[in-house]
Amino acid sequence: MPRVSQDHLDARRRQILDGSRSCFARFGYEGATVRRLEEATGLSRGAIFHHFKDKESLFLALAEDDATRMADVVAEQGLVQVMRNLLNASSTGAPALGADWLGTRLEVSRRLRTDEEFRERWAQRSEQLTTATRARLEWQKQAGNLRDDVDVDVLTAYLELVLEGLLSHLAMGLPAQHLTPVLDLVEESVRRHRTR
């Protein structure tokens, strides 16, 4: 039996994650049946579950993959940029943290409220975004760009709460076109205001 290269295994794993992302976004966790996952990925159940123990492990890996991508944006541009990308995705289907990512993130939020076991498993993975946000804010503070009258941990929690509020807003299907100035205000609220 020929050995499969690591590149091939990595590509197959990526194929599964990308296909399942759209499936979970479209049908939710419960509606993403094995048959639908097979159709979305173009692979058999055996191929899918060769890479992932079960559907929950697949969903967690997908959510973790998205959290890593989001943390990368935070590290380079900040959490407000992630929120801007979400707004763009909700109105245009933009690829950077696009509509499928939003659907997955909304499903994570729903499951966090309703599934204690999932909440425990997710807690082990969710620190990545907080860590990236805190590091970005610390960097901004060192550069003299961040307000210095509020602790970085408080600012981190503030931005994460704004993100959750934005997700709830988008999940309810409320209009998003007027939210860009709101995000401008959020961004301005964490900046240091220099007196002349």
From TrEMBL:
Feature: DNA-binding region: 33-52
Protein name in UniProt: Helix-turn-helix domain containing protein
Boundaries of every HTH tetR-type domain copy: 10-70
Gene3D superfamilies the record matches: Tetracycline Repressor, domain 2 (1.10.357.10)
Organism field: Saccharopolyspora oryzae
Transmembrane segments annotated in the record for this chain: none
Top-level lineage group: Bacteria
InterPro entries in alphabetical order: DNA-bd_HTH_TetR-type_CS (IPR023772), Homeodomain-like_sf (IPR009057), HTH_TetR (IPR001647), Tet_transcr_reg_TetR-rel_C_sf (IPR036271)
The keyword Amino-acid biosynthesis appears for this protein: no
SUPFAM superfamilies in the record: Homeodomain-like, Tetracyclin repressor-like, C-terminal domain
Family annotation (PANTHER family): HTH-TYPE TRANSCRIPTIONAL REPRESSOR NEMR, TRANSCRIPTIONAL REGULATORY PROTEIN
Keywords: DNA-binding, Transcription, Transcription regulation
